[in-house]
Write a structure and sequence with these properties.
single chain; 507 residues; 18 helices; disordered N terminus
Length: 507
């Protein structure tokens, strides 16, 4: 711990005086950067945390960025990583800029008001199925200023650029590894934070890594990775812990098959392809761009590592939304111009679950749901999100403080006015703007957002999700239900989501 005098010294020198028109200036290990001020927060955008992974560095672990003379303008985000630009209910997830291989940038948001003490740091890992998204899509200014924390958002390599495994790449690696470059990018960003965040008024000894969907899964991957020791002190996984991953061998086989489809017998041929050529070839029904269990970056499947206690013993907060699966149903059916009918429902369930379909249809009869879409959404919610996350929360609770939530604002997405023939409820991703403080709805929704922002930043500050003037959040097996009507705590979550059905292995 630093002495009080040193804390005062750091606080006084963190921001070099600069003209208001120029914006705040900070000195990092890689040179000076000049940000901008907007209302109650400073932002420093487009800061390189690694060298551009281009040319011979394509499909290589990230290397440190070059030191830059002079003052870098940090008023504009860096380009997002290569991806297909796709619309979503929330807009273009790629965010500002043109997708590029030169994309390993992060953004720092700090309260504009100075502090005599270093602030907790929250590092956000975006979702998007490991194929889309960017850090700059998420504005951390409100979270930083209202929560009195430093917020970092980041890009990481996506799709084939981030997760191609291939025997040639394993041969290049001293440890025989390939794939997982996107995870290594995230870890490089965490090291950058450890080394530089004090200059922005952040505390490198109090870092919370948090993320949603693929970002939440990444958080849990870092929990079990030996390469992140000492890089973070708390973890928040939103709708994404414990997804099963392919083995290193199977992912390499997929990578070799994919390379063959491009007429490439080796990685040198792949490196000679343009980014656009690779991107075009990387989308298909048989491609799966995700991390793999390589024995080094990821030693084990996340549930296996948690069950054996082989993970970093830091406090963990995790949870899901009440209607996770309804967004998938809406995207597959209503937003694609068709509706799921009662006749379609058993066909869809059989396509998903094969021999288990009859048992599942018995447990999820249409008579229990308003529409076939809601019934299928409940199956997806429980099987893919609620029960796996409840299991990981329980496994963690055997070794470390573990807290679980369910976000249950059934009107969280009403403001989007989506052309959907069923209530979409609280689907996948609908809690994010509540955490970041971007809710402009009825008073009850704004109040819920305030409480959630306070819970999240309270957890970042102390390891306990405490918020003033909000109900106490008790550890697992209690589950905190977050709804505009009331914030409550209970133990019926596994029963409510039929986890006895989903927790046992398929026969």
């Amino acid at each position: 711990m630093l002495t009080g005098a040193l804390l005062l010294s750091v606080a006084a020198t963190a921001f070099v005086p600069a003209a208001a028109a120029e914006g705040p200036t900070v000195t990092t290990r890689y040179g000076q950067v000049r940000g901008k001020t907007s209302g109650t927060a400073h932002s420093f955008l487009g800061l390189p945390y690694a060298a551009p992974p281009v040319g011979t560095l394509r499909w290589k672990p990230p290397s440190p960025p070059a030191r830059r003379p002079g003052v870098r303008d940090a008023g504009t985000p860096g380009n997002p990583c290569v991806q297909h630009v796709r619309s979503s209910p929330w807009g273009n997830l790629a965010g500002p800029g043109t997708p590029s291989e030169d994309c390993l940038y992060l953004n720092v948001h700090t309260p504009a008001q100075r502090s005599l003490q270093r602030r907790p740091v929250m590092v956000w890992i975006h979702g998007g199925g490991f194929t889309v998204g960017s850090g700059a899509f998420y504005d951390g200014g409100t979270l930083a200023s209202r929560g009195d924390v430093v917020v970092v958002t980041l890009n990481y390599r996506l799709g084939a650029f981030g997760y191609l495994a291939h025997p040639d790449l394993a041969q290049e690696s001293p440890q025989g590894l390939s794939g997982n470059y996107g995870l290594l990018d995230q870890q490089a960003a965490l090291r950058w934070v450890h080394d530089n965040i004090a200059a922005f008024g952040g505390d490198p000894g109090n870092v919370t890594v948090f993320g949603e969907s693929a970002g939440g899964g990444s958080v849990c991957h870092h929990l079990v990775s030996p390469r992140t020791t000492g890089l973070f002190d708390r973890a928040i996984a939103q709708s994404g812990c414990g997804f099963p991953l392919p083995t290193h061998a199977s992912q390499q086989n997929r990578g070799r098959t994919w390379a063959d489809s491009l007429g490439c017998a080796d990685v040198a041929c792949l490196r000679a392809k343009t980014a656009d050529e690779l991107l075009t070839a990387s989308t298909g029904p048989t491609t799966r761009w995700t991390p793999n269990v390589d024995g080094r970056v990821l030693p084990l499947q996340v549930p296996d590592a948690l069950e054996s206690g082989r993970f970093h013993r830091v406090p963990v907060l995790q949870g899901t939304t009440a209607d996770e699966g309804r967004l998938t149903v809406a995207t597959t059916y209503d937003l694609a111009g068709r509706q799921l009918t009662a006749a379609d429902y058993p066909v869809a369930v059989r396509a998903l679950h094969g021999e288990r379909a009859d048992e599942i249809l018995t447990r999820y009869p249409l008579t229990d749901h308003g529409t076939p879409a809601e019934a299928l959404g409940a199956i997806l919610t429980d099987s893919q999100f609620a029960c796996p996350q409840s299991r990981t929360a329980g496994l963690m609770a055997e070794h470390t403080p573990s807290y679980q939530y369910e976000f249950a604002d059934r009107h969280a997405m009403d403001h989007l006015n989506l052309p959907i023939g069923f209530p979409i409820g609280a689907p996948h991703g609908s809690e994010i703007r509540y955490v970041f403080g971007g809710v402009a709805g009825p008073p009850a929704q704004r109040a819920l957002s305030d409480r959630m922002l306070d819970y999240w930043t309270g957890f970042a500050r102390t390891g306990v999700p405490h918020a003033v003037n909000a109900p106490r959040w008790k550890p697992f097996p209690k589950v905190q239900t977050l709804a505009p009507e009331a914030i409550t705590s209970g133990v019926t979550f596994p029963r409510d989501h039929r986890c006895d059905l989903w927790d046992r292995p398929a026969s």
